Amino acid sequence: MNYSTHNTLLYVENLSVAYGDKTVIKDINFVEKDVIRENNVTGQVVAVVGRSGRGKSTLFRAMTGLIKPTTGKILIADTTTGIENDAKEVQEGDIGFVDQKYTLFRNKTVYQALQFALRKKDISKEEKHNTIMTYLADWGLEKAKDQYPCELSGGQRQRTAVIEQILCSGHYMVLDEPFSGLDVGNIEDVKKAFNLITSSHEFNTIIYSTHDIELAVELADSIYVIGYPTIDGKRKEYGTIVKHVDMKELDLAWKDFGLDHIEVVKQIKATMLNS
Amino acid sequence: MKYLFKPFEKISKNNRLLIIFFWVVIVLAFWFISSMGERHLFPSPQQVLTGFTELYSEGLVVHIGSSLLLCIKAILIAVVISLIVTYLATIPILTPIARTLSKLRYLPLTGISFYLAIIISDARTMQVWVLVVFMSTYLTTSLLSMVSAISQEEFDHARSLQCSRWEVLWEVVVKGRIDHVIEVIRQNLAIVWMMLVTVESILVAAGGLGFLIKNSDKFMNHGRIIALQIVILLVGLSIDFILDYLRKAFFRYSKI
């Protein structure tokens, strides 16, 4: 499938995070660029997989600015300056973050939560209202508008959490295990949500972690495997990228799941088991 | 019937009411039987009823009002102090203040009263402040637990929505936990209510239920003492019920 890559959207260099003496992740390097396909708005979908305790959540917290990296830097495209390929170091709030529990403000209704997410946008009250109502309609949340998180279903919570981040953070969104504990229907909802996000802007980039390798291979166009590296025959006790699968290069991205995808799944699982 | 004796067995609402009724009957029967004869530990129901009548004619309602007023004053001041101290405890340099205040709950009431007596001359003000100091320590302890029970995900969620640290404090801790504050007050109320009666009986200033107990105690009027205990229990339970009702009525999202 024809595609090309343009502006760098995400640049991670020499990233490491340590808590005291314990290094959780180290030597993380990767670049994600804007993928362009003809007659198609194509956002980026990046999956991060790896066994438990390898540092996926720590990587996500660093990428979203919630923890300061011990070394290295994380740059994202600065689309506000109008200068092409302009970059800035990631700050708290630049990248939306949805955790696996779909945390929301417990004391705000869906509408109030979205209103809060828009509080810093320089638009009129009426425009804010219209934006919220459009999103609620598009994402099937109109009826849940005045409900509190404790009154929402898992799927409704997840959609609200995603919209909140879209409204507040712009083009980037990190989702920590968005498929964890969801039933078949909810998984389809998340897939739809991914499509809605990536098809609405070229720069929109979803980065998510999952233990479901089939879902990673099916949905992502770039997959990173995090694991413990083996250096000079010794397994190290920190997480790093041990494999990168570029589904675009393999001509498997944006295609229905097939036999070739299964082969990739096997390769990823083998890498995970050895790291 | 057998299932009523099985641990963790779910029972219907009707059965629950029947069990409560059964126990009330048992307690009343025990009371009647144990208060018969010449020598008995508890006063008879008749004596308690007479106690109620006497108390009522001596201005029981006014005394309840006085105790409630003292309770409300002390609670309001203590809640304000405890909330300020707890919210500020999220700032590292101020954390030790809250931790210390919480630890002071191990201080004896007599010691607190001694120092307060040096500073305060008015007995009613003294009662208020003894309770405030006492309550603040317990409230702060519970409020600190409330804050530490907030999950990291909630803080991260607010931060990911570009909240400054002060906004996180306001949105997640202050606004996000108002219902919990009411629950903390409710849970601590039992100790406070108990202390209030003790404080009133030690520092006899402007009447109150504690003053009535002390008077009844002096004359060994058992009927009055039990009548008063029942009044104190019922007033305490009423406050508890009202607070729980208010929390549920005003905070629909509150599922504590």
Explain how this protein is built.
The complex is a heterodimer of chains A (275) and B (256). With 275 residues, chain A is an alpha/beta fold. In chain A, 30% of the residues lie in helices and 28% in strands. Chain A contains seven helices and twelve strands. Chain A has helices at residues 56-63, 110-117, 125-138, 154-169, 184-198, 213-219, 259-273; strands at residues 4-19, 22-36, 44-50, 71-77, 87-89, 96-98, 172-175, 205-209, 222-227, 230-231, 234-235, 240-246. Chain A has a six-stranded mixed beta sheet with strand order 6-7-8-3-9-12, with helices on both faces. Chain A has a four-stranded antiparallel beta sheet with strand order 2-1-4-5, covered by helices on one side. In chain A, helix 6 packs across helix 7 (259-273). The longest helix of chain A is centred in the middle third of the chain and has 16 residues, at 154-169. The mean pLDDT of chain A is 90. In chain B, 31% of the residues are buried. The two termini of chain B are 32 Å apart. The chains are: A alpha/beta (275), B mainly alpha (256). The interface between A and B is medium-sized, with 28 and 21 residues.
